[in-house]
Amino acid sequence: MCQLLGMNCNAPTDVTFSFRGFAQRGGKTDEHRDGWGIAFFEGDSQPNSPGHGKGLRHFVDHLPASESPVAELIRRYPIKSRNVIAHIRKATQGAVALENCHPFVRELWGRYWVFAHNGNLKDFAPRLHGSFRPVGCTDSERAFCWIMQELAKSHANLPSVEELSITLRELAAKIARHGTFNFLLSNGLALWAHASTSLHYIERRHPFAHARLSDEDLSINFAEHTQPSDRIAMIATTPLTTDERWTAFAPGELKVFVDGALAGT
Length: 265
Known about the structure:
Layout: E1 3-14, H1 16-24, E2 36-42, E3 55-61, H2 69-76, E4 80-88, E5 104-108, E6 111-118, H3 139-154, H4 161-176, E7 182-186, E8 191-194, E9 200-205, E10 210-212, E11 219-221, E12 231-236, E13 247-248, E14 254-258, E15 261-262
Antiparallel strand pairs: 1-4, 1-12, 2-3, 2-4, 5-6, 6-7, 7-8, 8-14, 9-12, 9-13, 10-11, 14-15
Helix pairs in contact: 1-2, 3-4
């Protein structure tokens, strides 16, 4: 299975610490050697501004994340973002190739949408038409294209996060009938996470504490790098740190994170 990493914050934050440990799972501390990718939403940090979260930096590589020069660039370049999605691939469908590396990106309602999937969908061959067609040959990209197509059919314009969550729960349940469907999805305004099997999250807020990576001998005192008002939600296939309390998703559960917190809490 692949590995997922997501971050949602109320202020632009760098994901360097978490990504350092996460990247080691791409061939060093785990077997996921079939490519990797990461996408950062950027833009005006004011929620009501036209450019809020619309910009996107997108990096993918078919090399293992633990050996990739592009991954080394990300480890050394603290890009700040309010929504980040990263993926480390262990191929189940589709060759080891750049076009099959997650996360995938599409445009809908004048915003970028980013998607990454962990799992294997069997006999999933939906009818796709219009603007959303796969470039590669993975079940994951087909699922993403179908989700985008169905969202466009269900809503004429960009709906609220609450409305999107209702639609996504319905769509995720239909796809999950075909197999394991753990995924992360973001449009720069929120981050949705769905679990079939393994997915965990943690919310970091004041008072911030120390944390130690589980995949690398590295620790950090978050209090030295944050403001009291900061809120950061991290989502990962398996917990990234050894000394923090991560919460497991229930099977079939979809959660949405906004401004660094679980929506509705």
